[in-house]
Design a protein that fits this description.
Shape: globular
Order of helices and strands: HEEEEEHEHHHEEEHHHHHEEHEE
Strand content: 15-25%
Bound molecules: alpha-D-galactopyranose
Distance between the termini: 13 Å
CATH topology of the largest domain: Ribosomal Protein S5, domain 2
Strand order of the largest sheet: 5-4-6-3-1-13
CATH architecture of the largest domain: 2-Layer Sandwich
């Protein structure tokens, strides 16, 4: 914070008035289910974007990123266009905010982050959510946390062009300390589930593999699911999304759908059921059974949804070779990014050393590891 304050004064020659923090997220289980009206089980984590801001009297937005070492500015009143920069996420939320009310006040902001960018831990959603909170607040637009999440999702869908679901923005806006959030993405009703980890920790392992083409492959998966729904509807299935199917129907569905669509459907339907079971296991403290579901989820994402990659598979395999690991899977959209593993506390050091060493031997890439804690969702406070 002190460094951030020094930078703020240096860049803007004034005192900051507002503090910002916005966490990343991991998804424990329920992958690629959110845009199918399904269930997800994410948690906000202790890797965060921090910021300091001060309101301006005019409509200028002046922003400095300590991570990119870059200063940018634009005017709220201009016709804002996507430019392929980190500022697109700010512009995207401002464009959406303009639709919900009068927005005329800009801000001077400095951001700094220990949340790795492009690693599947939702740095973009974290950035959208905190800017939606800031610009709505300073312009007197009263939005609930749910509305902040939905507005941020629209910014990502419409301005940035990634057709994501609601999980990331929702968990970043509404996450709770030491808990995961069991969310029904169809109704947006949710339950805060305490993470009773009984001597285990959630370790995030970052493949550090660049996630190329991930947004186009993501949108493609979504279309494959939508196609499956429309074929099934034509075959007299009374459904509005894949959420409305259950695993006992998969056998008959296999004969109706093209193979690729069937594989996607199988993953989504079974993954939804795994989420429901996981919530129960965590509530009853049955971490072993929960761990097994993580492994099943990974296998399904690899074989049926086909969004894993060699590096993620290697991290999972090496993680499961460490005694005291209960389960491991990719988390987030896939095609690179991170895995989560449930690791016994006394084995964490060993885990990081061995998995890191073997991963490097097999991929030539250096993995990063984070012992994650669940934290509260994004916040802004006036100093
Ligand atoms: C990304 C998206 C989410 C979700 C996950 C996959 O993180 O932003 O909405 O679809 O991928 O579960």
């Amino acid at each position: 914070m002190r460094e951030l304050e020094g930078k703020f004064k240096e860049v803007f020659s004034r005192e900051p008035e507002i503090e910002l923090r916005s966490p990343g997220r991991v998804n424990l289980i329920g992958e690629h289910t959110d845009y199918n009206d399904g269930f997800v089980f994410p948690a906000a984590i202790n890797l965060e974007i921090r910021g300091l801001a001060a309101v301006r009297d005019d409509s200028g937005v002046n922003v400095y990123s300590m991570d990119f070492n870059e200063f940018k500015s634009f005017d709220i009143n201009n016709d804002l266009k996507k430019e392929g920069s980190w500022t697109d996420y700010i512009k995207g939320v401002i464009v959406e905010l303009k639709k919900s009310g009068e927005i005329s006040k800009g801000a001077d902001i400095v951001y700094s982050s220990n949340l790795p960018v492009g690693s599947g831990l939702s740095s973009s959603a974290a950035f959208e959510v905190i800017n939606a909170m800031l610009f709505s607040k300073i312009n007197g637009i009263d939005l609930s946390l749910r509305e902040i999440a939905l507005l941020s999702q629209r910014a990502e869908n419409k301005f940035v062009g990634v057709n994501c679901g609601i999980m990331d923005q929702f968990s970043i806006a509404l996450g709770k300390k030491d808990s995961a959030l069991f969310l029904d993405t169809k109704t947006l009703s949710y339950e805060i589930v305490p993470l009773n980890m009984k001597g285990y920790k959630i370790i995030i392992s970052n493949t550090n593999k660049p996630r190329e083409l991930s947004s186009s492959a993501y949108n493609e998966r979504r279309e494959e699911c939508e196609t499956a729904v429309s074929i099934l509807k034509k075959n007299n299935y009374d459904i509005s999304s894949l959420r409305d199917l259950n695993s006992s129907q998969l056998k008959e569905i296999a004969s109706i759908l093209p193979e690729i669509n069937f594989k996607r459907v199988k993953h989504v339907v079974e993954e939804n059921e795994r989420v429901l079971k996981s919530v129960e296991y965590l509530k009853s403290g049955d971490l072993e059974s929960f761990g097994k579901l993580l492994n099943e989820s990974h296998k399904s994402l690899k074989d049926y949804y086909e969004v894993s990659c060699g590096e993620l598979d290697i991290l999972v395999e090496e993680a499961m070779n460490i005694e005291g690991t209960l389960g491991s899977r990719m988390t987030g959209a896939g095609f690179g990014g991170c895995t989560i593993s449930i690791v016994r506390e006394d084995r964490i050091k060993d885990f990081i050393e061995k998995v890191g060493e073997n991963y490097f031997k097999r991929t030539d890439l250096k993995a990063d590891f984070y012992v994650s804690e669940a934290v509260n969702g994004a916040e802004i406070f006036f100093k």
